[in-house]
């Protein structure tokens, strides 16, 4: 049992030591730009990645500002798509499962928005369809993927957050994805707290 | 109606190496950041009015596009094959000709707005390229293309101009602490002296052959500047800015003048680590990099010089760096392409 735990932990550590720092930095810039122009950030994924997406929306919209909830003139507008289970099942049942993200996204997506697509394989057809819509509309794409560097999401994304792993090791890839998403929350929480500390009378 | 916003920029080193006479021989390079001062372009469809109307410092309304006096709007509309039923206005948070790149910010915003008007989307690179083409080839201005790329992409970037006309935009990935540290160490003053970049650049262009070595050194210093930005070596950045300014002054006789020299020297004598004139030169804005505790002293001494020289428009411009580039903020045009 201990050996299994040690092996898994070593894989996680290796992965964490080799995070794609530049690509994460680019993603932070994309998020900051969307904030400045009052754009919205749409995030989506399948299965466990959908749970990561929803968790991140909660943290990004609320936890980032939790020390100073009323001191910033606006907050992030992160939205998970689809926003309701009803839309998800309607698109899947009536049109096709490949439409569950791109269908609802078409209702919302505007110039100045950004998207975060999470797919461990980077090849889920429904994810790629939504990413292709964003690319067509010249909306910035943060791609969070894993396994093979040649995956489609990694090819299409503007910020290519890719975690190399043995094919099928969702446990490692999704775990690291979760850490990176939390890192983004932490970065902006520190940043916005810092702005308030240095100029408490200003709002941002 | 379509509303597009483009940021102005401050450039640190490498200005002048974005002129084709230079980068056709050796790659040019600049480092600059977008700031929280903006140019807005509004485009409105007027299906019931066949005229072309442009509202800027004056209002023009013409029946025939070729009668429009505003050269860039006229050339841009012609290139989009639009010759009636359109109204274009511009708004800005700064006067023009300040050396903050506002004329190119206008062009990028215009290009993005006219694309949106025709139901097309363009990315930052395409918009910058089209704006450069508009200003340099269609209008024939003797300018470079750093400002179009700075405005279109936004953020803090190293921009490289290659002999084959391609351009690489590499973001300088600094965290908020270093960004704010640099931002806090800058002082920007509008001199109140305006000039068109083209007047200075025409002479600079003629001198390129003899100044090739100086320009190469300026382009080559850009990676080191970027590295110091990443390290947060503000003092070193000041020294590099000072060296860059001395080099830039040697490029053309009208880059500086005695008023600008006096303002610059007053800042340095009061403790600034370095500085420069923003834009092609001859007027515009003065930028200093300085220790934060020297800011008040520098403010006092440059204001004294400005008042002695009767620079009535002289004032400090508080700035913040921004990450966003040229964006369509609102698109309520009823003739947009359908969703599918």
Question: Could you explain the architecture of this structure?
Answer:
The complex is a heterodimer of chains A (204) and B (340). Chain A is α/β, with parallel strands linked by helices and 204 residues long. Chain A has one domain: Rossmann fold, CATH 3.40.50.10490. Chain A has 8 helices and 5 strands; from the N terminus they run H-H-E-H-E-H-H-E-H-E-H-E-H. In chain A, helix 3 packs parallel to helix 8 and helix 5 runs parallel beside helix 6. The longest helix of chain A has 29 residues, at 170-198. The radius of gyration of chain A is 17 Å and the shape is globular. In chain A, 43% of the residues are buried. Chain B is an alpha+beta fold. Chain B has a single domain (2-46, 92-316), classed as Ribosomal Protein S5, domain 2 (2-Layer Sandwich). Chain B contains 11 helices and 12 strands. In chain B, the strands form 2 sheets. In chain B, strands 1, 2, 3, 4, 5, 6, 7 and 12 form an 8-stranded mixed β-sheet that branches. In chain B, strand 9 (274-278) and strand 10 (285-289) form a beta hairpin. In chain B, helix 3 packs across helix 4 (124-138) and helix 10 runs antiparallel to helix 11. Chain B is globular, with a radius of gyration of 20 Å. The two termini of chain B are 21 Å apart.
Which features does this protein show?
heterodimer, A: 204 residues, alpha/beta, Rossmann fold, five-stranded parallel beta sheet, 8 helices, globular, B: alpha+beta, Ribosomal Protein S5, domain 2, four-stranded antiparallel beta sheet, 39% helix, SIS domain-containing protein (chain A), SIS_GmhA/DiaA_subfam (chain A)
Q: Helix-strand pattern of chain A, N to C? A: HHEHEHHEHEHEH
* Helix share, percent of chain A: 40-55%
What is the residue-averaged pLDDT of chain B? 92
CATH class of chain A: Alpha Beta
* Proportion of residues in β-strands of chain B: 15-25%
The outline of chain B comes out as globular
Average pLDDT figure of chain A: 94
Number of strands of chain B: 12
Count of DSSP-assigned helices of chain B: 11
Coarse structural class of chain B: alpha+beta
Q: Give the CATH H-level superfamily of chain A.
A: Glucose-6-phosphate isomerase like protein, domain 1
**Strand order across the largest sheet of chain A:** 2-1-3-4-5
The biggest sheet of chain A, with number of strands, parallel, antiparallel or mixed sense and barrel status, is: 5 strands, parallel
User: What is the CATH third-level topology name of chain A?
Assistant: Rossmann fold
């Amino acid at each position: 049992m201990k050996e299994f735990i040690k092996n898994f932990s070593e894989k996680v550590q290796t992965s964490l030591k080799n995070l794609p720092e530049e690509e994460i930095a680019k993603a932070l810039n994309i998020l900051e730009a969307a904030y400045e122009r009052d754009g919205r950030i749409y995030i989506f994924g399948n299965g466990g990645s959908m749970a990561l997406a929803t968790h991140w929306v909660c943290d990004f919209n609320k936890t980032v500002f939790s020390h100073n909830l009323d001191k910033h003139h606006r907050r992030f507008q992160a939205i998970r798509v689809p926003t309701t289970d009803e839309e998800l099942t309607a698109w899947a049942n009536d049109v096709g499962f490949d439409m569950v993200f791109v269908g609802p996204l078409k209702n919302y997506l505007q110039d100045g928005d950004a998207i975060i697509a999470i797919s461990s394989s980077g090849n889920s057809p429904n994810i790629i369809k939504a990413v292709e819509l964003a690319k067509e509309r010249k909306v910035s794409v943060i791609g969070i993927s894993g396994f093979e560097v040649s995956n489609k999401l990694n090819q299409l994304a503007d910020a290519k957050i890719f975690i190399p792993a043995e094919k099928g090791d969702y446990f490692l890839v999704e775990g690291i994805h979760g850490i990176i998403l939390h890192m983004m929350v932490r970065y902006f929480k520190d940043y916005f707290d810092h702005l308030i500390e240095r100029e408490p009378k200003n709002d941002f | 109606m379509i509303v597009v916003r483009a940021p102005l920029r401050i450039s640190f080193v490498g200005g002048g190496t974005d002129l084709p006479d230079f980068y056709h021989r050796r790659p040019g390079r600049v480092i600059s950041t977008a700031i929280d001062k903006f140019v807005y372009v509004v485009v409105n469809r007027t299906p019931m009015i066949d005229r072309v109307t442009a509202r800027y410092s004056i209002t023009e309304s013409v029946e025939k596009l070729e009668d429009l006096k505003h050269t860039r709007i006229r050339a841009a509309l012609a290139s989009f094959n639009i010759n009636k039923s359109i109204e274009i206005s511009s708004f800005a948070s700064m006067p023009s000709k300040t050396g903050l790149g506002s004329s190119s910010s206008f062009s990028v915003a215009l290009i993005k707005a006219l694309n949106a008007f025709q139901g097309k989307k363009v990315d930052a690179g395409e918009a910058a390229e089209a704006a450069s083409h508009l200003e340099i080839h269609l209008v024939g201005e003797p300018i470079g293309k750093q400002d179009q790329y700075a405005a279109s992409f936004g953020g803090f970037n190293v921009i490289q101009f290659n002999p084959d006309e391609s351009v690489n935009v590499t973001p300088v990935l600094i965290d908020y602490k270093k960004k704010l540290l640099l931002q806090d160490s800058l002082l920007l003053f509008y001199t109140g002296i305006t000039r068109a970049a083209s007047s200075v650049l025409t002479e600079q262009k003629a001198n390129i052959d003899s100044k090739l070595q100086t320009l190469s050194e300026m382009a080559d210093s850009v990676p080191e500047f970027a590295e110091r930005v990443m390290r947060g070596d503000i003092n070193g950045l000041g020294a590099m800015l000072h060296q860059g300014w001395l080099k830039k002054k040697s490029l053309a006789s009208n880059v500086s003048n005695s008023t600008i020299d006096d303002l610059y020297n007053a800042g340095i004598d009061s403790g600034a680590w370095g500085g420069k004139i923003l834009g092609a030169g001859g007027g515009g804005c003065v930028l200093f990099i300085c220790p934060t505790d020297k800011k008040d002293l520098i403010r006092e001494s440059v204001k004294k010089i400005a008042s002695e020289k009767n620079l009535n428009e002289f004032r400090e411009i508080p700035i913040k760096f921004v990450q966003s580039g040229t964006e369509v903020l609102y698109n309520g045009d009823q003739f947009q392409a359908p969703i599918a």
